[in-house]
TRAP transporter small permease protein (Stella humosa), 174 residues
Amino acid sequence: MGMLSRTIQRLALGLGILSGFGTVVMMLLIVADVAGRTFFNVSLPGSSELAELLLVAMIFLGLAAAQQRREHFNIELATQYLPPLVKQVVALAGWVISLAVVGLLAWLSSKQAWTAFLRDEASYGIIAFPIWPARMLIAFGLALLAVQILLDIAGTLRPRPAAGDLAPQTSRHE
């Protein structure tokens, strides 16, 4: 599972970085649209729809990377005073509940994305902008988040070496 785990972690990190670039692209798109309206009285056709797609990509492509780096919202008020073993059991229960909820959301959104793709679902407006890519991004992002949570559960269950079992670390420069 080591190579698969590293591959998933690299994928999540790469998509998180791509999500950050989506922020820059959306910002440039909005600036160009506002400048066009202000100075030339012309807006960019489809810019609102594209900004919506970019927003979905920014959020859902970055979910797994945020989970991997433990950057999601977390409250430790009740658990900070628990003994380490109880804290680990509570954390594991939280991961399992999170996996169930995110897995269900990923499955349902995958079904909805597939239906939207088959129907070639598009927005109503000046430009018929396809909606199914955003639905696919939501499903993919949630599925990747579920896999990352599964990796977190496996990491929580993995036995840790005892303090005496660790070999001393040596520097390459010695």
Summary: The longest helix spans residues 2-40. Confidence is low (pLDDT under 50) at residues 167-174.
